[in-house]
Amino acid sequence: MKLKFLACCLAMTGAALLTVPASAQISDSVVKIGMLDDMSGPFSDYSGPGAVEAMKLAVEDFGGNINGKKIELLTFDHQNKADLAANKAREWYDEQHVDLVISHGLSSAGLAITKVALEKHKLSVSNSGAIQITNEQCSPYTVRFGMNTVNWARSMGKAIVEQGGKTWFFISLDSAFGTALQADTQAVIEKEGGTIVGTVRNPAGASDFAAFMLQALASKAQILGLANAGSDLVNAIKAANEFGVTKTMKLAGWIFPTDVDALGLNLTKNMYMADAWYWDQDEQSRAWSKRYFAKMGRMPTSQQAVAYSVVFQFLTAVKATGKDDADSVLAYWKSNKLNDMYIRGGELQPDGSIKRDLKLFQVKTPEESKGKWDYFKILQSVPGDAVYLTKAETKCQYWK
Predict the structure, then answer these.
(1) pLDDT score for 14
(2) pLDDT at 164
(3) Taking each helix axis from N to C terminus, what angle separates 2-12 and 283-296, rounded to the nearest 10 degrees?
(4) Helix, strand, coil proportions of the chain in percent (round to 5)?
């Protein structure tokens, strides 16, 4: 199965993958990739150590080297602190000669790395959710493979309002991500004729959501929008069930299979979710996820799958061009559609977004699930043209 999967992925990269230019240049004779992530905090289940293992699978698929040059992975826990993330990115670019820095975790850390990458003219891939990374704070050297807050809002907000969820109350993480997710969803809700009847902010790492849930109940809204993630999302869903919010309101949140696994289907059933990928969506995804499961003992999240995709596509570009500098890799990505087990027909837009189709999911009921990790059902595919910013909408100066 592993050989079949690898053959399929390599075939999709095209003939360019097999041709190395005579002027091939691998800096320092090593291809270096660094991951800055939340390795032990509230978002580590989504990405963290699991994303690192996913990256290792991509390196394994290339045999550990590119044209005889070693592939090296570096990791660092930025603890969701922007200063730590920026300082480590600068050190890696300047002293370690890292060719690509990948970032996950809080969007403030991703935004900080984007500035360093622009300063150094080095490649970064940020998979944090805040739209600013590929909008008003975009950079020609930063790319995002994963979902952003506008994608989620346009996929989820519109669908829920169309189904009758007209009034919303938001509990949002007090961060760039929470602010962006609420604002982007609110814009969609109001455009579709819905209203926001109340909002509160929760600090990162909050454990007591009692006061927030009482305010949500008092609002008499139809939908409780949870613009948070990680342990904050898990604690909010627990509290919503404990205080009876789920008896009168439907929940909408950026939920992952790891959240469902931690909470159980009884507390999460029927929640809606938009995402770019799910481990059980097709044969190719299932084959790769079985490899991941063999290493981690659990199925991957989309954030862990995207870490694989970034490394796979970076190494594909390096192998095809014979170069590992940012400009060469970006030029290759711009001139080729990106395909692997995570992304199909991906197109690099001038704002740094990889545009592709997304999916609308719903958490299964206990009766629908066939067992552990069988948590989501796919409701529909969402065309990329419907959920990504256009040139007319963008605030990205490099696209304008």
Answers:
(1) 42
(2) 92
(3) 130
(4) 45, 20, 35
Phi, psi of 66 (to 5 degrees): -120, 115
Alpha carbon 301 to its chain's center = 9
**Are the CB atoms for 293 and 299 separated by under 8 Å?**
yes
Which helix (H) or strand (E) segment holds residue 199: the answer is strand 195-202
- HSE value, Cβ hemisphere, 13 Å, CA-based, for 5: 21
13-54 tens-digit pLDDT:
443 444 444 345 898 899 999 999 999 988 899 999 999 999
CA distance 6 to 351: 30
Instruction: Encode burial over 242-271: b for 16+ CB neighbours within 10 A, e otherwise.
Output: ebebbeebbbbbbbbbbbbbbbebebbbeb
pLDDT at residue 13, as a whole number = 45
CA 324 to CA 345: how far, in whole Å? 23
Residue 176 near residue 193 (C-beta atoms within 8 A)? no
Q: How far apart are the first and last CA of the chain?
A: 45
Q: Please report the pLDDT score of residue 98 as a whole number.
A: 98
d(CA 239, CA 228): 14
What tokens appear for 58 in the block?
């991509």
Intervals of the chain under pLDDT 50: 1-5, 7, 10-23
Asked if 23 contacts 31 with a C-beta cutoff of 8 angstroms, the reply is no
Give the pLDDT of residue 21. Answer: 43
pLDDT of residue 24: 57
What tokens were used for 361?
């999911």
Q: Which two tokens stand for residue 398?
A: 């490099």
Burial (CB count within 10 angstroms: exposed 0-12, middle 13-18, buried 19+), residue 106: buried
Helix (H, G, I), strand (E, B) or coil at 79: coil
Per-residue pLDDT at 16: 40
